[in-house]
Inverse folding.
C-alpha cells in the first residue's frame, strides 16, 4: 500500500508532467511564430511524451488502489528569445524533472515500497535520455549559425520526429 506521503508526491509529479507538456507547447509556439516548424515539431512531440508520462503515473496510482488528483498549474513562460534559448530552458526543465524523480525514488526507498521503486526506475532511466537529447541539441545549435544550411538541415531532421509509446512502458 502506497503511503499518504508517497501518494501526495506521485500526484504532484503527475501534475508536473502535465505542466511540462504545456511548457513544451509554449516552446513550440515560439518556434512556430518564427516559421521554424521542424523545431516546433520537436517540442510538440516532447509535449506528447510528457502527457504520456503523466498518464503512466495516473494509471499506476489507480493500479495501487489510490486516487489520482488533478490540480491547476501556474502560468507558463512564453518569453523565448531564440531556438537555442528554448533548448537551454528545456534542459533546465528536464534537470528539475530528474531532481523530482530522484526525490520520489528516495521516498519510495525509505518506505521500502518495492512496487513503486520498480515503477519509478523506468522514469529515472527516461530522464537520462531526456537530458542527453537536450544536451546534444544544444551543442549542435551552438556549433551552427542560425542562417546556415546546417541550421535548416537540423530543423528538417527534427520535423521527422514522432512519438511512439515505448513497448515496455
Amino acid at each position: 500500500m502506497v503511503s499518504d506521503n508517497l501518494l501526495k508526491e506521485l500526484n504532484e509529479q503527475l501534475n508536473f508532467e502535465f505542466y511540462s507538456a504545456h511548457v513544451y507547447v509554449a516552446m513550440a509556439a515560439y518556434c512556430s511564430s518564427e516559421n521554424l516548424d521542424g523545431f516546433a515539431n520537436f517540442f510538440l512531440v516532447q509535449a506528447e511524451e510528457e502527457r504520456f508520462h503523466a498518464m503512466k503515473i495516473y494509471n499506476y496510482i489507480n493500479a495501487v488502489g489510490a486516487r489520482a488528483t488533478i490540480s491547476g498549474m501556474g502560468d507558463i513562460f512564453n518569453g523565448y528569445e531564440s531556438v537555442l534559448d528554448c533548448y537551454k530552458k528545456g534542459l533546465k526543465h528536464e534537470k528539475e524533472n530528474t531532481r523530482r524523480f530522484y526525490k520520489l525514488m528516495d521516498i519510495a526507498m525509505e518506505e521500502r515500497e518495492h512496487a513503486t521503486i520498480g515503477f519509478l526506475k523506468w522514469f529515472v532511466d527516461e530522464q537520462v535520455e531526456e537530458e542527453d537529447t537536450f544536451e546534444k541539441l544544444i551543442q549542435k545549435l551552438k556549433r551552427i549559425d542560425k542562417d546556415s544550411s546546417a541550421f535548416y538541415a537540423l530543423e528538417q531532421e527534427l520535423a521527422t520526429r514522432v512519438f511512439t509509446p515505448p513497448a515496455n512502458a
Remarks:
- The first helix runs from residue 4 to 33.
- Helices lie at 4-33, 37-63, 83-110, 114-143, 149-159.
- The two ends are 22 Å apart (CA to CA).
- The mean pLDDT is 95.
